[in-house]
Design brief:
The chain has two domains: about 170 residues, Response regulator (Rossmann fold, 3-Layer(aba) Sandwich), CATH 3.40.50.2300; about 160 residues, Rossmann fold (3-Layer(aba) Sandwich). Helices cover about 40% and strands about 20% of the residues. Helix 4 packs parallel to helix 11 and helix 7 runs antiparallel to helix 13. Belongs to the BMP lipoprotein family.
Length: about 350
């Protein structure tokens, strides 16, 4: 059963009680009668990024890691959802409540948690804090879980260029921030290295401090339609929940979409469009969350930069669509590019 702890601007004490009462797998009434042994169980928590659980992408990948830890490690999990338009102070309050409730580790899903984690980690030095997609804030009890997104995106560019009939492809970024620029840079380089004459249409949905580009599917849908109208027949979106709108528009037009973060061909919420999801650039967010939880449980908590790239299968390109697996020339080109990146023959740019 899905149990989400929602913390917005409630007081710290009441928030902590709410978290304790809604740990994954327990109703509030069950939690109220917890035994002493329950209170000593290892607990772990994740605080979701914009879009929350159900985004069919980034947040859901993190949740899958927590689920795996619950099943394989016997960990008691807790979750906390973001609120629209929240401040860093709201994030501090959420993370504080999670730490005060005894969760260890506490994981912030997304770079937006960096300032809050830096502050709360100092207040709870015995708790390990994980942050995904950020290295700007460090500390002895902070694990920076990061990925070479540009490498996976390069492979997507190769696949897009090899698949396109119009020699025009599209990239849609949710919000124009350095992280998403990495996706763009790798994708464009992969396209151009494969087909120098190809045209890459690039659009960002919003600019900071407006982060709706990660959460509004209608924005992604409109952007994709604009690129389709300009002749794009393969569109890659790095836009969280907003990317689902781009996938919908692309699929309805009978063109190819490329997903991100999770294998979006396999996501139930996108089942109606999966035949047009050529592939997805995957990040092993699930594995990074699970590994951090396991390290804490084993008494050897990770800290510092924990980077995952093509060489460690931390990023990659999904091959779930049977139509894609039949494209032997595309797969051969992707595999060659992967080998060349791992061997150091290709250096992928991190900025456009």
């Amino acid at each position: 059963m899905r149990r989400i702890t929602r913390i917005t601007t409630v007081g710290i004490a009441s928030a902590a009680l709410a978290l304790s009462a809604t740990a994954c797998g327990k109703s509030s009434s069950e939690a109220g009668s917890s035994s002493t042994s329950d209170s000593k169980a290892v607990k772990a928590a994740i605080a979701y990024d914009i879009g929350g659980r159900g985004d069919q992408s980034f947040n859901d990948a993190a949740y899958a890691g927590l689920q795996k830890a619950e099943k394989e490690l016997g960990v008691k999990g807790a979750e906390a959802e973001p609120s629209e338009g929240e401040s860093d102070a709201d994030k501090v309050q959420r993370l504080t409540a999670l730490a005060r409730s005894g969760n260890n580790p506490v994981i912030g899903v997304g770079f937006a948690y960096a300032p809050a984690i830096e502050k709360v980690a100092k207040a709870y030095p015995k708790t390990t804090f994980g942050i995904i997609d950020d290295t700007s804030k460090t500390g002895p009890n902070i694990a920076n879980l990061v990925f070479n997104e540009e490498q996976g995106s390069y492979l997507a560019g190769v696949a897009a260029a090899k698949t396109s009939k119009s020699h025009t492809v599209g990239f849609i970024g949710g919000v124009e921030v350095p992280l998403i620029k990495k996706f763009e840079a790798g994708f464009v380089q992969g396209v151009k290295d494969t087909d120098p004459k190809a045209k890459v249409l690039t659009q960002y949905l919003t600019q900071p401090p407006d982060f709706n580009g990660f959460s509004k599917p209608d924005l992604g849908k409109a952007a994709a339609q604009g690129q389709l109208d300009k002749g794009a027949d393969v569109i890659y979106s790095a836009a969280g929940l907003a990317g689902s709108g781009a996938i919908e528009a692309t699929a309805k037009a009978g063109k190819w979409a490329i997903g991100v973060d999770s294998d979006q061909y396999m996501q139930k919420g996108l089942a109606a469009y999966k035949d047009h999801i050529l592939t997805s650039v995957t990040k092993d967010v699930q594995g990074s969350v699970f590994n951090l939880i396991k390290s804490v449980k084993d008494g050897k908590p990770q800290s510092g930069e924990v980077r995952m790239g093509l060489a460690s299968n931390g990023v990659g390109l999904a091959a779930s669509n049977p139509a894609y697996t039949k494209m032997t020339d595309v797969i051969a080109a992707v595999e060659k590019a992967k080998k060349d990146i791992v061997d150091g023959k290709i250096t992928v740019k991190t900025t456009p």
